[in-house]
Specification:
single chain; 4-stranded antiparallel beta sheet; mainly beta
Length: 100
């Protein structure tokens, strides 16, 4: 699963994505954003503890692993500034050697 988008300038951005067909299991998540170097974007899975990843908007991706015991996952992305930001999110099956 992959999704990308843009937070317009003028207010901190927020986006929710429900992956209703994502079955229970373990996954690798990657987040990248481009924009103001002082801006960060945070993604969380099901708003659960231990499933939060923060990435600086410097054209570098960050990754984490997470597990879910039920089908369907809601991903929430938040930016911490009013600067415009482009973001990309990818969720894959758990990759060998992935840390999390």
């Amino acid at each position: 699963m992959a999704q990308n988008g843009r937070f317009q300038g003028g207010a901190p951005g927020s986006f929710s994505l429900t992956a209703s067909t994502l079955p229970a299991g373990s996954y690798s998540v990657y987040l990248a954003c481009r924009g103001d170097a002082d801006t960060t974007v945070t993604v969380s899975a099901n708003n659960a503890a231990g499933t939060t990843l923060t990435s600086g908007c410097s054209d570098v991706s960050s990754g984490m692993t997470f597990s879910t015991t039920s089908d369907g996952t809601e991903f929430t992305l938040l930016s911490d500034s009013e600067a415009p930001v482009e973001w990309a999110l990818a969720v894959t099956e758990l990759l060998p050697g992935a840390e999390g």
